[in-house]
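Researcher: Re-running this chain for the archive, since the previous output was lost when a drive failed. Same request as before.
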Amino acid sequence: MKFSKIARSLLAGTTALLFLAPAAQAAVVSVSFANSPVVVPNNIDGVYFNFVTGQRSTTEFVGFDFNPYNNGSGITFYGNASPSGILATGTPGTLAEARVLQFGDLISAAGQYNQYQTRGDNFDVTGQEYVGLRFLNESTGILNYGWALMSTTAGNGFPASVLAYGYENNGLSITAGQTAAVVPPPAAVPEPASIALVGLALGAMGLLRRRQS
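Model: Regenerated structure tokens:
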């Protein structure tokens, strides 16, 4: 009886070593409006997005993360209060300029993020451009980095629309246009000592069966 308990204990312990689940991996969440772009109204309200819940509205609501609109002189981007904000250059404040990002450009903690109103003068062109941002994820309490793909028109940026957006939900950096989830690392290979322990447990179980037969 004592031998049986030892064998079973060894087997349970070594099995646990072999099948420990890997740590949760970071994930990129993305939404595409390619088939039906979200039009940005050419007015002071524009359109508001909550990236986490998917809520959007042409009327401001509590918890929005991104708001493109026309401030009177052209397309402008609005981010919530610090630590949220729009990836920008220049002096922080109402004169800061949103950066035009290309596919693959890094959006991370190293950037300068402007809270509230951020000018979009560099988006007053005809084409598709990425804007970077960061926002507080209300579900996790973590500061997330993300992007929005804009379609704009020369002049003042309008007509304008949002074609897609994405963000990294664990607080890590992301690249403009990134949509694929982070690939998890391969499963850890058991150390030699663990393998030897498994062999010992299996041998003990075999001896137990022979004794019981």
